Amino acid sequence: MIRAAIAGVGHYLPERVVENDWFASFLDTSDEWIRSRSGIERRHFAADGQVTSDLALEAARGALTDAGMAPDDLDAVVVATSTPDLTFPATATILQQKLGMTRGFAYDVQAVCAGFVYALSNAHALIVSGQASTVLVVGAETFSRILNWEDRATAVLFGDGAGAVVLRAVEGQGTPADVGILAVDLHSDGRHRDILQVSGGVSSTGTAGHLTMAGKEVFRHAVEKLARCTEDVIAKAGVTMDAIDRVVPHQANVRIIAKTAAKLGLPMEKVVVTVQDHGNTSAASIPLAMSVAAKRGDLKPGDLIVTEAIGGGLAWGAVVLRWGHGR
Ligand code: UT7
């Protein structure tokens, strides 16, 4: 059977690094509060004029180089973002042009912080259905553009960045020993849409709007829903929790990451944590964390990995995959 395996991974962070102390110069907050409540120490912000597709481009180039592929080797590009360059065309087609890619098809997926998990699942479906053999999946965000700088409860939590993976079709045996994506579990529940949303949009206000969040409520949903869908996706993959080598969670809050891991009985040594350096980069957070961990040598060929995310919608999901060998 056909599996979608990871052939390459890359990431990009804008040059400007903003430490927690910077916020204390204009908000009633402190490094101590931000660090202890979220685990965040710093984040990167895009420069003026640097747009989401610019970040995506650097991450995509890194993933293609890692995979030993050229842009025209790709059949499709899927970009997960909630902060597109423009209302249309899709940031993915802008990326396609910037990459110099002249074939295939490209489109965006919008599932906020769960965007990369949704995009990965979508790219997996393209590959196993035979619609594409090689797919670039990117998570890229410029959340600094939708933050309310007067709201200390949200402004301190988010950052900009991009991560990318190249997926390639490989032959598998149909067992959990195969490399590539083994199982996917996606959910959404629009009844909770108002606890994490943006205050504007094309069809409502005609503006981009600003992010608003009922943090405590999102926190509660996050731990419960991430734990359940991680258990479910592991069962779907036909593996056990003990067999998991690495967890690459969405990087929103180290307390959510730790509580979810504890609920699942997963030791923190197995969990990739990058939130201290990146903040919450929404759809970019998982591929960013994957790329950083892979470059550190923390993700090895054959490793069994589970990745999970939740965000606005609410939308959430998890994927189990065996790392590598897509080259
Ligand atoms: O990626 C998508 C999903 N998003 C998330 O997963 C975020 C989920 N939520 C969270 O991570 C946490 O709820 C937060 C980090 C947002 C907040 O942590 P918390 O422990 O839930 O704090 P809280 O919202 O209950 O606020 C505690 C106190 C409040 O003061 P009072 O009412 O107790 O007097 C807040 O006003 O902390 C205050 N506060 C701050 N103080 C200093 C809120 N933001 C700040 C701040 N600096 N930046």
Structure commentary:
By secondary structure, the chain is an alpha/beta fold. The protein contains ten helices and 13 strands. The model has no long low-confidence stretch (mean pLDDT 97). Oxa(dethia)-CoA (UT7) is lined by residues 29, 33-34, 37-38, 113, 152-153, 156, 215-216, 218-219, 222, 252-253, 256, 280, 311.
CATH-level-4 superfamily name: Thiolase/Chalcone synthase
Radius of gyration based on Cα positions: 18 Å
Average per-residue pLDDT, rounded, comes to: 97
Helix content: 25-40%
Oligomer description: single chain
In DSSP terms, counting alpha (H) and pi (I) runs of 4 or more, how many helices?
Answer: 10
- Derived from helix and strand composition plus strand pairing, the structural class reads alpha/beta
Counting structural domains, the number is 1
CATH class (first level) name: Alpha Beta
Key traits:
10 helices; 327 residues; alpha/beta; binds oxa(dethia)-CoA; Peroxisomal Thiolase, Chain A, domain 1; five-stranded mixed β-sheet
Brief overview:
With 327 residues, the chain is α/β, with parallel strands linked by helices. The chain has ten helices and 13 strands. A hairpin with a 3-residue loop joins strand 12 and strand 13.
